[in-house]
Amino acid sequence: MSHPLREKAAVSGIGETAYTRGTPKSALALQLEASLAAIADAGLNPRDIDGVVPYFPGGGIAEDFIANLGLPDLKLSLFVPMGGATCVAAIQSAAMAVATGVCNHVLIAVGRTGYSGARVSTRLQQFPQFALAAEFEAPIGMFAPAQLYAQGARRHMELYGTTARQFAEVAVVTRQHAILNGNVVMNKPLTVEEHHASRMISDPFRLFDCSLESDGGAAIVISRADRARDLRKPLVTIMGVAEGHPESPASIAQRPDLLEFGLVKSAPRAYAMAGVGPQDIDVAEIYDCFTFTVIRQLEILGFCKTGEGGPFVMDGRIGLGGALPLNTHGGLLSQGHVVGLNHAIELTRQLRGEAGRAQVKDAEVGLVTGYGDMGDGSIAILRRAA
Amino acid sequence: MSAAPIAAPAPERPLPTPTRESQPHWDGMREGRFLLQHCSGCGKVRHYPRPVCPHCFSMESEFKEASLGGAIHTWTVCHHPFNFFFKAAAPYIVALVDMDAGVRVNAPLRGVAEADLKIGKRVKMGFEPVNKEVTLPFFVSA
User: Fold this and answer.
1) pLDDT of A185-222, one tens digit each?
2) Containing domain of residue B109, as a range?
3) Mutate to test the interface with A, among B80, B87, B110 (most CBs of A within 10 A)
4) Which of A45, A93, A140, A353 has its CA 20 to 30 A from that of A124?
5) Does any domain span residue A128?
């Protein structure tokens, strides 16, 4: 029997601001600018929005959307507190809302001043989920995701022989894709040598293994599939979507296996719901807060076995024209950091055939992941509906 | 009238804020004892301290002194000081250790060269008082 949520909802609109380092705009203004763009892309009026999932903390809350967009009757206001897994997990919440008839059009929106506002080590202190890290790890010198996730990356290298050269491949290919996109922070080519020469942040992560601190906004509209069919853009439906939470969710240190992310639970559920497997995926937008995070997620997603993610990314496999083109927009590593909503936007573009020079030929089914908050993992599998 | 130059304030060390659950653990650290929370119902150890045993759901627990030995599970070498307090210490190794007591502890590893790091290497916890209330853990080679 088909899953009751399968293809009942669609991504009907996408919008983003310029991705920059430096802006006079507030995070809320960036979030609303992207929201207006996404609503216009869908061919809707802002007053059609009746559900909103703002990324939090940072940017606005539901009250800001009502006040700024004049929403006459907001029926659903949600936060999805999953860090980098928020945006894709929010697709599940939004799909549930429209499929059940609670809402018609739900807006998911991010506004971030990660460069011109508070930086990462300060921002994280706003997260209640980081309370354990603040009590037990910050005092001994571990604050930032680059440090907390580095220990998992190091263990993978020691157990499976994963190398810095393989990390570099993810960074270099992602940069090549960013240059094709144009709306990116990093628009110059990156070489393996430049990656290896970049300063060490937290071993094994060098500067170019780390995602950007940038300013920007992104938004998408999730609509009931039968309504989205009549809207402005080609129909892109949500075949499968899921969120997953790892053991010891607020402390990586105490997790029995540091490399078992929430995606271990959510990926099989999303594949089952969609009725597809890794062999059916034409393009993948993988949350890339760090190069290694991409490598490990590819293993969990079943594109290769555990321990084989390093060799998997080599030899052109993840570039345009390769067997699994990924992060075709430049990702968090090179386009900009809007908590991965840009990944969902890029996947929608690919499936609509709107990806320009980065278009994957005949892309019909793709997946997008979110990862964060110490290892939560979300996934959506989208399809260009005939 | 010339104003005295304003010195930048010294960066403050981030310190733990004990909770009602974790206070006994920190009290133990101050006394140079590694105290871990054990379920009074099923006896299982849990760390970091929290109100309910996830195995048997008992809310009763007691803190018992644990041994200080362990083996390296993994590590990182912190070069970029995300907090200015740690700028002078960088680069520093932080080892995540599988304690013999059955939990993990993340703490600085001292007196060991990067080249000598490996999974399974034996280490021992030490105690470093940072003020009257707070003592933090560190590791040395066993």
Assistant:
1) 999 999 999 999 999 999 999 999 999 999 999 999 99
2) 67-142
3) B80
4) A93
5) no
